[in-house]
């Protein structure tokens, strides 16, 4: 390269920068004139702490279609030192999900009843119905600070629905798609809300009673994944049959062919014990349900989540025959060296409806 060529190139290079700098100066001058901005308008006194509310709320569209997020933060609440922090998570489809004319307020009463510092508990709720999402967020906004002891409440609107009526949700042919959707929503809620909490407690929206000392006992046990025995109402039978240890029925050759063609196979027990049939304070399980489910934070963070398909016996192109959602969670956890446990004597109550 000759000196003349270098000089010409260098001059063109500098000229481009001069033009860009001029355009930038024009842009910012126009912007500040348009905003009627003057340096004298800025007063340090405007930023006195007294001018800020201690609690704050934020509502914003999510990056995903039909999704919104609402966050309530109260920085005046500080966790108790030496106690674990817990993220309590719940899915709610719509107003009916609380059951028996209950509302988000009744759900809060259950959480507030725990013998555990509320300042160490954050809440996360995912609603699949915009009307219910608005009802929840409106309730939080009007709640006096002295009645809201939680450092953070995160509410998510995620409008996904399997199209299954509540009365039909237990039908055999509905279980695959229903539980796949539940797994997807649980995982979305988990990955969106979990920050630095030590543990996660999952609670079904239609739980009506949970022992006050349960959360503390779960934490103190040091165990990885724990569920309780759950019955229907105060006098009903035990209902959480997704929590078990033992052997399940495997499909025969004909049933396997149906599965591989996209047909339905209903997983069912062969020789199992359910949580309420165990004897010890903590009995080991092969699978857990999600009515009341405790998971140590690091277990979730290492990839133990809710499986979105039947993972037992699955091929690359077809479903397996067992192990979806919470049942698949224990299957994955086992390969990482974690164990699942049931508490047969800590009985929680689910709505009868």
From TrEMBL:
Coiled coil: none annotated. The chain crosses the membrane at residues 12-32. InterPro entries: Mannan_Polymerase_Subunit, Nucleotide-diphossugar_trans. It comes from the Eukaryota. Pfam families: Anp1. SUPFAM superfamilies: Nucleotide-diphospho-sugar transferases. Keywords: Membrane, Transmembrane, Transmembrane helix. Belongs to the ANP1/MMN9/VAN1 family. This is Glycosyltransferase family 62 protein. It comes from Linnemannia gamsii.
């Amino acid at each position: 390269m000759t000196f003349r060529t270098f000089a010409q190139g260098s001059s063109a290079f500098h000229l481009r920068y001069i033009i860009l700098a001029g355009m930038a100066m024009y842009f910012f001058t126009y912007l500040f004139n348009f905003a009627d901005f003057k340096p004298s308008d800025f007063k340090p006194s405007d930023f006195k702490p007294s001018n800020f509310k201690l609690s704050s709320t934020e509502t914003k569209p999510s990056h995903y279609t039909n999704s919104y997020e609402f966050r309530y933060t109260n920085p005046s609440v500080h966790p108790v030192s030496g106690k674990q922090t817990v993220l309590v998570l719940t899915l709610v489809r719509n107003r009916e999900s609380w059951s028996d004319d209950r509302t988000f307020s009744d759900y809060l009463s259950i959480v507030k009843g725990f013998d555990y510092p509320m300042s160490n508990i954050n809440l996360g709720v995912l609603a699949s119905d915009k009307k219910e999402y608005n009802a929840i967020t409106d309730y939080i906004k009007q709640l006096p600070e002295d009645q809201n002891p939680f450092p953070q409440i995160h509410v998510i609107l995620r409008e996904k629905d399997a199209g299954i009526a509540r009365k039909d949700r237990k039908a055999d042919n509905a279980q695959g798609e229903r539980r796949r959707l539940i797994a997807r929503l649980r995982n979305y809620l988990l990955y969106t809300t979990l920050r630095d909490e030590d543990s996660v407690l999952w609670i079904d929206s239609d739980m009506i009673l949970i022992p006050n000392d349960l959360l503390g006992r779960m934490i103190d046990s040091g165990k990885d994944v724990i569920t309780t025995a759950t019955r229907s109402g105060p006098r009903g039978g035990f209902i959480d049959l997704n929590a078990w240890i033992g052997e399940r029925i495997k499909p025969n050759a004909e049933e396997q062919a149906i599965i591989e063609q996209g047909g339905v196979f209903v997983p069912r027990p062969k020789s199992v014990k359910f949580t309420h049939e165990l004897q010890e304070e903590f009995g080991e399980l092969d699978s857990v349900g999600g009515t009341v489910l405790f998971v140590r934070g690091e277990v979730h963070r290492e990839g133990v989540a809710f499986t979105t398909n039947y993972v037992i016996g699955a091929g690359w192109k077809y479903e397996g025959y067992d192990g979806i959602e919470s049942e698949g969670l224990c299957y994955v956890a086992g390969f990482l060296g974690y164990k699942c446990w049931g508490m047969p004597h800590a009985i929680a109550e689910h709505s009868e409806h």
